[in-house]
Amino acid sequence: VMAMLQNIPAVINRFLPSSRQELARFTSLQGLECIAPLVKTVEETPQPVTADLSGEIPSWINGNFLRNGPGKFEFGNQKYNHWFDGMALLHQFKIENGTVKYKSKFLQSDTFKINSEHDRIVVSEFGTLAMPDPCKNVFQRFVSWFEMQKPTDNGSVHYVKYMGDYYVSTETNYMHKVDPETLASMEKVDWSKFVAVNGATAHPHYDPNGTSYNMGNSYGRQGTRYNIIRVPPQKTNDSDTLQGAQIICSIPPQDGAKPSYYHSFGMTENYVVFIEQPIKLNLLKIITAKMRGKCLSDGIKWEPDHETVIHVASKQTGQLIPVKYYAKPLAMFHQINAFEDQGCIVLDLCFSDEGGVLTNYQIQNLRKSGQALDEVYNTTARTFPRRFVLPLTVDSSTATGQNLNTLPYSSATAVKRDDGKVFVTHEDLHLDDLVEAGGLEFPQINYAKYNTKKYRYFYGCGFRHLVGDSLLKMDIDTKEMKEKNTFLLVLDAKSFTELGRAAVPVKMPYGFHGVFASSKQ
Known about the structure:
Blueprint: E1 49-50, E2 63-72, E3 74-75, E4 78-79, E5 87-96, E6 99-106, H1 110-118, H2 138-144, E7 158-162, E8 165-169, E9 174-178, E10 185-190, E11 205-206, E12 212-220, E13 223-231, E14 246-251, E15 266-267, E16 271-276, E17 279-281, H3 283-287, E18 300-302, E19 308-314, E20 325-327, E21 331-341, E22 344-352, H4 357-360, H5 363-366, H6 370-378, E23 384-391, E24 413-416, E25 422-425, E26 427-428, H7 432-436, E27 440-444, H8 447-450, E28 457-462, E29 470-475, E30 481-484, H9 493-499, E31 505-507, E32 513-518
Parallel strand pairs: 20-25
Antiparallel strand pairs: 1-6, 2-5, 2-32, 3-4, 5-6, 7-8, 8-9, 9-10, 11-12, 12-13, 13-14, 15-16, 16-19, 17-18, 19-20, 21-22, 22-23, 23-26, 24-25, 27-28, 28-29, 29-30, 31-32
């Protein structure tokens, strides 16, 4: 971990604030509505039911709107501890000729099936440690504490698409191919059978030709690595899943014993942008978690004494560019967009200045009410859309102490320090009204039209509660916000056109993710 900034001339102070953690934005709301019904087990609805509609759906919107998220929070008398632990429930809204029919099915993962068979939690999840089999004798139960935990295949995070097929994904090495029409679980796919990774994110990126990019960690002879993965756009055989996938770049972490947790990454036309943030995976704690009677989340901590490091790699060559960018400690889960302009990368992210949010989403917290619920919300740092500008050409001849961002439309700064490293500060992409809306998360653009390109609008969820309570449209040029107080399954025609009609990945409220699979691709 690099040392604190030292001996920086006073002349550049206006460009270079301290890299230490800034005061995170919190709130003091009172009287929040209880949201316990959102985190209770529900029954699946395998047979389609007709939905009641308010208003009219444009005739040109036809297809399956797919969602994914946790839907079962206990087996027998054993309960999950964290929102991320619940069993994946797949949702389908079939939109056709102005009508909507809904159905849902639980993902038939190995985890779901073995838990159901034994009527208890057999497979550990992010925030829940599975207890030893009570049918084993005392010695067998003792020995089981020293066995390595097997990764879950509970794909509850996101719908993703590879080589034309739909998958539901979590952040382990397992995905499940699903049929978007029937919601049937078709095939379990293991990333590690194709590339040397121990997991992959649930937020890949796509080139216009269908080539997919993702990232995943590996822990092997070479030490810990962050790996950029490329998946070809088409199959060679009908049975292909991830055949042809390859690692194009491996990035060593700042601390091999404590690599960073990441949920997504950025991509431009020519580069992959990886944000190494100070939410740290303590590998020793994670490896020993089971024998210590702890769950996986016990080994993930916010460590704000570390700076954020931004790495940039060429998609064509797989090589890291020579310069790394350093920023204050930040906690980021979702990127908005990234594009290249006048020799710079413009990187737009949603992030907060404090990274302890994962603990707040324990189920016991989400089921609180009254003052106790208010306290949980008011101790959760707000997340806001922000922009970094990364100058691509920085070498030994580049002057220190000067703002290297020459883009006239951005106030973000990038300053080469005396130690040769580039420190970047962000520009806010919002006005004060977004603070009143509780910040913004789950950002989305018209991906098919504007991914990796300069754009003006994006959408997201406002958070005046622990879960999204409003739909926001942000204008980057003016930084103005437009708000809808209720979530709509289908937006008005103008907004839907801006989002894009064909297979646009969308991020949904309450932590659910999904895609719209258009019938007019």
